[in-house]
Specification:
15 helices; 19 strands; Chloramphenicol Acetyltransferase; alpha+beta; seven-stranded mixed sheet; five-stranded mixed sheet; single chain
C-alpha cells in the first residue's frame, strides 16, 4: 500500500533541476580496498533495513496532489551499488573529477532514489561514494542512517541487521541542540493550523513582494512575528553580482580540505568566547573574501548571504527519515578584513538569529509550500534562493573511529545540494577529532574550488597563531597606519591586527 509523502518531502521532490539536483552526496575513504560482496551485503542488510531505501516514488496520475512511496517490486541491490576504478595514479584529483561526473547524473525515478559507488584504485585503497535524494530525508537523518550501517570495531558479522532499538542506542546523538532548536520545535505543531493560510499569503508575497505591506496592516490571518519575518524575507535584496554568482550550468566541481584538528578550532573559539560554528563561519567568510579579491571583485561594503539549514528534530528521532529542518539567512560580512573583527561580527549575527523567529517561519513556509503545485514550489524556491549566494551546513559527527564492512573509515566528506540559482555549497563535517570542509561549485562560475579551501586553511592558521601567541583579544588598540598627513590613524582595531579595517592590506580605501 502506498504511503503519502509529507509536505516537506514533497517540496524537495519538486526542487530537482538539471543545474541543481536535490541530491545529498558523501564519501567515505579507506586505506584498504573493500570487497564488493562485503559492501553489498552490508548495504542490503543494514542500509536497506530502512524501508525508504527499497521504496520508489509514485506521482499522482492526475498530476495534482502529493506524491507517494511504494515498495519497488523489482528492487535489486545491483541497481543501486556499482563498482568503478579511478584511472592513472588514482589520487585526490582523479577522485574529485569522478565525483564531479557522478554528481550531475539525474536519478532514475522508477527506482528507489539512492546509489552507492565503490571507487577502487584510490591511494592504494578505495572510497565509497553515496548519493541520496533530498526527498528521502534531510542531511542530519541521512548521515545518521549511513553511520548506523557502520560498527565501532572490526570483526562484527556483516549480515547482522541492526534493529531500530539497537540503532538508537548505538550511536551518540549527532544532533546539535541549542537556541535554534528551542525556538523552532515548540511551534512545529502550528504548521498544520497555519499551513493553508500561510500558503495563500506566501503565494501573494512571492508574486508581488510589496504585498507584504498590505499583509502587515491586517495581521488577523497570521501571527505578528510571522508577518514580520515574511516581510523581512520578501524585502531582502538579492545578493550582488560577484564571481561566485551568475547563470548556472550542469557541470559541477567538488573539493575538500585536508582534515583539520578539532582541538585547534576549540582553542580559537574559547580564546575569543565564540562557538566552534562561529569560528568556522567567520573563517569561511575570510576565505571567500580572499577569493573574490583574487578574481577582481570589489569587496568594500559587500555582504553575501548564506542559507543555513537548522535542525528541528527532537532528541531520539534521529532515525526517522524525512525532512525536519528549517532555513535561516546569515549575512556574511565579506567587507571586514580584520579576522578578529570579522569573527566578532559573525558571532553577533549568529546570536541574533538564534533568538529570532526566522527559523520557525521558514519551516512553516517550507511545509506550506509542500502542499502546493510543483510550479508554485519552484517559484518560491527561486524567489528565496535569489537572496543567497551560498548554502552552508555543519553536521557534527561521531568523535571515535568507525568501521564499514570491517574496515576503518579514515575520512568522511559531504556536499550539500543547492536550490534555485545558488551555485556554491559548503559543508562542514567533524569525525574522529577532525573537521573536513566539503565544497561544491558551479564549474562555469568557480572552476577552482581548491583555491577557496587553501584560503580557508590559511585563514584558520592565522587565527590559531594569533591565539597561540596570545595576541587575540577584544581590547581595542590604535591602528599603526599613518594617514596622508603623516599622523597616526584614529580608527581602532583589536590586538592581533596591526591595521584597522580601512587600512587592512588588500582593503579598498
Amino acid at each position: 500500500m502506498a504511503e503519502t509523502m509529507t509536505n516537506a518531502d514533497n517540496f524537495w521532490l519538486h526542487m530537482d533541476h538539471p543545474t541543481n539536483l536535490m541530491v545529498i552526496t558523501g564519501i567515505m575513504e579507506f586505506k584498504k580496498t573493500l570487497g564488493y560482496e562485503d559492501v553489498s551485503v552490508t548495504l542490503e542488510n543494514r542500509l536497506c533495513s530502512f524501508d525508504r531505501f527499497k521504496q520508489r516514488i509514485v506521482l499522482p496520475t492526475s498530476g495534482v496532489g502529493m506524491a507517494s512511496w511504494e515498495f519497488d517490486p523489482y528492487f535489486d541491490i545491483r541497481s543501486h551499488f556499482h563498482r568503478v576504478a579511478l584511472p592513472g595514479a588514482g589520487g585526490k584529483k582523479e577522485l574529485q573529477r569522478m565525483v564531479s561526473d557522478l554528481m550531475v547524473i539525474p536519478m532514475d525515478r522508477s527506482k528507489p532514489l539512492w546509489s552507492c559507488h565503490l571507487i577502487e584504485n584510490y591511494k592504494k585503497g578505495c572510497a565509497l561514494f553515496f548519493r541520496l535524494h533530498h526527498c528521502i530525508a534531510d542531511g542530519i537523518a541521512l548521515v545518521y542512517v549511513l553511520l548506523s550501517a557502520t560498527d565501532k570495531k572490526t570483526g562484527v558479522p556483516l549480515f547482522e541487521e541492526k534493529s531500530s532499538k539497537k540503532k538508537k542506542k548505538w550511536l551518540p546523538s549527532l544532533i546539535p541542540h541549542g537556541p535554534f532548536m528551542t525556538n523552532v520545535a515548540g511551534f512545529v505543531d502550528k504548521t498544520q493550523t497555519l499551513g493553508e493560510k500561510l500558503l495563500k499569503e506566501c503565494s501573494k508575497v512571492i508574486s508581488h513582494p510589496l504585498y507584504v505591506k498590505e499583509l502587515a496592516k491586517n495581521t488577523s490571518s497570521l501571527p505578528l512575528d510571522t508577518v514580520t519575518v515574511l516581510g523581512k524575507l520578501a524585502m531582502m535584496p538579492s545578493d550582488p553580482k560577484t564571481s561566485i554568482r551568475g547563470p548556472l550550468g550542469v557541470r559541477k566541481c567538488v573539493a575538500w580540505s585536508n582534515p583539520i584538528p578539532l582541538k585547534n578550532i576549540k582553542i580559537v573559539s574559547k580564546a575569543v568566547d565564540a562557538t566552534i560554528n562561529d569560528v568556522l563561519t567567520a573563517t569561511v567568510t575570510g576565505a571567500l573574501r580572499r577569493y573574490l579579491i583574487s578574481r577582481g571583485d570589489k569587496v568594500k561594503k559587500i555582504e553575501l548571504h548564506a542559507s543555513i539549514p537548522v535542525n528541528i528534530r527532537k532528541l531520539g528521532t534521529e532515525f526517522e527519515l524525512g525532512n525536519k529542518f528549517s532555513l535561516v539567512f546569515l549575512a556574511l560580512p565579506i567587507y571586514i578584513g580584520d579576522p578578529i573583527l570579522r569573527l566578532q561580527e559573525v558571532k553577533k549575527r549568529m546570536d541574533h538569529l538564534k533568538q529570532s523567529q526566522d527559523a520557525f517561519v521558514a519551516f512553516m513556509v517550507l511545509s506550506a509550500l509542500g502542499i502546493s503545485s510543483a510550479n508554485v514550489a519552484k517559484t518560491a524556491s527561486n524567489f528565496f534562493a535569489n537572496k543567497a549566494s551560498i548554502v552552508m551546513t555543519n553536521v557534527p559527527g561521531p568523535q571515535e573511529p568507525l568501521y564499514f564492512a570491517g574496515n576503518k573509515i579514515e575520512n568522511f566528506i559531504g556536499w550539500v545540494p543547492r536550490t534555485g540559482r545558488v551555485g556554491m555549497g559548503i559543508s562542514v563535517f567533524s569525525y574522529s577529532g577532525k573537521v573536513v570542509i566539503g565544497l561544491v561549485t558551479d564549474e562555469g562560475l568557480v572552476p577552482d574550488p581548491d583555491k577557496i579551501l587553501e584560503n580557508f586553511e590559511e585563514e584558520l592558521d592565522h587565527l590559531f597563531n594569533l591565539v597561540k601567541i596570545q595576541k587575540a583579544s577584544t581590547k581595542p588598540v590604535r591602528c599603526i597606519a599613518l594617514t596622508q598627513r603623516g599622523k597616526q590613524c584614529k580608527n581602532q582595531t583589536v590586538v592581533g591586527s596591526e591595521y584597522c579595517q580601512v587600512h587592512q592590506p588588500g582593503t579598498e580605501i
